[in-house]
Structures are given as C-alpha cells and as structure tokens.
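User: Hi! I'm working on a homework problem where we have to compare a predicted structure to a textbook description. Could you give me the structure for the chain below?
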Amino acid sequence: MPIIEALAHYLRGFSTFFFFYWTYYFFLLRRRGRLLRLVFIFSLCQSLGYLKDAVFLFPQFSHNHRVDDIVSLTDLCLVPLACSLFYEVTRPGRLRIWQIAGLCLPQAAFLIAYLLLPQSGIIFLACLFAVSVSLVTMVLVAIFAWRHSKYLKANYSYTEDIDVQWVVLCAGGYFVLCVAYLAAFSDPSWAGECLFCLINMVIWGVVNLYARRHRVLILHPSGCDTLLPSGLEVSVGMEAAAMGAFSAAVPAKNAVPAESVPESQPAEAPAAHDTPLSQDLLRLMEERKPYLNPKLTLADLAQEMHINRTYLTSVLNRDIGKTFYDFVNEYRIAEACAIIDALPPSERPKLADVASRSGFNSLSTFKRSFLKVKGMLPSQYGER
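Assistant: Happy to help. Predicted structure tokens:
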C-alpha cells in the first residue's frame, strides 16, 4: 500500500475519533445554550458522516461511482447546518429550528432526487448550492461580526470571550473547505483525501475551542444587553429554560484593586474639548477611576454620571472623538504606566499583575492596547 494511501486511511480514522470526542464533550454541555447545542448536533452528524464512509471498506462498494456520489451528497447535507452554526454566533437566537431545517431541505432533496434519477446534473446543482450557501454565509457573517465589533467598541471596555471575529475566519475557512472538498472529490485522490481531513479538523478544532468558552451577548438597542454564561461557567445538567435567568454581568461599581497607584503618580486623562459634560466625564475618570473595573460598560459609566447613555455616547464621539473602548483603555494604559514608573525595575510587579491592577482582565489585551497607545510593548516601556 502506498504511503499516501496509508496516511489517508490513518487521517480518516483519526478524524472519526476526533469528532466522536467532541460529540461526547458537547453532549455534556448541550443544555447550556443554543450555540453549544448546535455544535453538539453538528459534531454528531460529522461523526456519523465519517462512520458511514466505512462502506468503502467493502470491495463491492469501494469503486462504485454511484455509491461515491450518494456519500458525497450526504456530506453536502451538513453544509447548511454548519452555516447555521456560524450565523448563530453572530446573530444569537435569530434562526429558528424550522428555518435551519429549511436550509438543509434542498440538499436532502438533491440526495432523494439522485436516488430516484441518478444524473450528473443533480450532483452539479447540489455542489453549486452548497458552495453558494457557504459563500453567502461567509459574507453575512463578516457583516454581522463587523456590526457586533462596532457595538462592542461603543459600549464595552473589554472584548474577551464576547467578540465574534473568530467566527469570520472560521466561516471563511469553511468556504475554502467546501471548495477543496469539491476539488478533491471531483477527481478523487489520496492526497486530496489527506488535505480535506486536515483542513476539516483544523477548522472545527478552532470552532469547538472558541465555542466552549464563548459568552453569548444578545444585543438590545436600549443597551440592556443580555450576557449568557459560557459553556464552562454553568454546572452540567442545567435546563435550557434556566438560561433566561441570566442577565448582563455587571460587577460592583468603582471596583478598585487592593493596591492602588500612589497619588503622586496620577494617570493622565486623554484630551477633550472644553464642554461641561466632557469635563465632568474627565473629572469622574480621574477621581473615581471607574476604568479599574475590568467589566465596565457604557451603561455603567452613564449611570455613574447620572445621564442618559445616548448623551454619554455623544460626548465621547463629538467632544472627545474616541470610542468608549479606546477611551477607557487609554486610562488603563496611563494607569499601568504610572504603576511601572512608581517603582524601580527590581521592585516592579509582573506584567500580569500590572494588567490586573490597571483594569485589564487579559494580559494579551493589555499588551495589544499598550502597543496601540504607546507604540511599544509594556516590557519595552519598563526597560526604557
């Protein structure tokens, strides 16, 4: 047996175990939310899809083109389900079960039509439909993710586990996978089989890892958003009906770490136009330091100022010229610089401690924001 053929068989077997593992994993989490339930259903279908390919182990089916076409049409039925999963991440709760079933129905109809009348034209239409659905999904997911990111920057001072940019890459990768599938199996080869298995495991490995920690943020125009816990925050066996009890997680106001920056090293405030509201905002940021709350939102800050969040948005956009996200994180970076400057190099805390004490809840976000504001990494700033 050639090496490439042996590798293809090995990768297909490994892929089967890969998806069965994730099926079991998300089976335990399936009641924690719609997203995890969809991931479980898709992983189960993928597992069964790989299992059905065992039919090619029988000599009478291994070189049967009709059986091969039926298997391919069955695989294509998973495309609308996968696209529904991507859509669910960017527009949680918008797709109903009957709509998801409706998306899968055309592919099932192609399969039934081929069983009744095996024609190559049916295969072509099924492939064209699958690629079109994945292409449209990639475009829509990119648009919805951009809108979601814009909303986060205007209303939240953090993006950890609530940003959805990761699904844009996954949707794009899945479109590439669909094209690779058609290219690999229109002219079957062991090399194409290996490539497909590898790309498939990489894409769904990323999706599963992000989905297990993603916190679903249901946006409302009023600003009273609903933030559902991630898959790792609720005990197994929780009923889906209980999800409605979870609302936006808002920490205690004016949360300040145990160790504060010496008063001789105040954080510099970003520049603003001289308007009463902007001056009140800057005074609040300097005196109360609400930015030290790692979960600070626009609604929280508006409540601190006793004004409508729409007015606060206007102050940020018109008078200060910054998004809420950038405005708050500039204060956090200034606070971090004050912490670093207040102590000699030998006594400075670790970067993770500096990030935590200045209001960041992620070291990676701290480094990224520091680089954006200061043009250097925090480690370089401490060594200057």
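For your comparison, note the following. The first helix runs from residue 3 to 29. Residues 232-270 have pLDDT under 50 and may be disordered. Good luck with the assignment!
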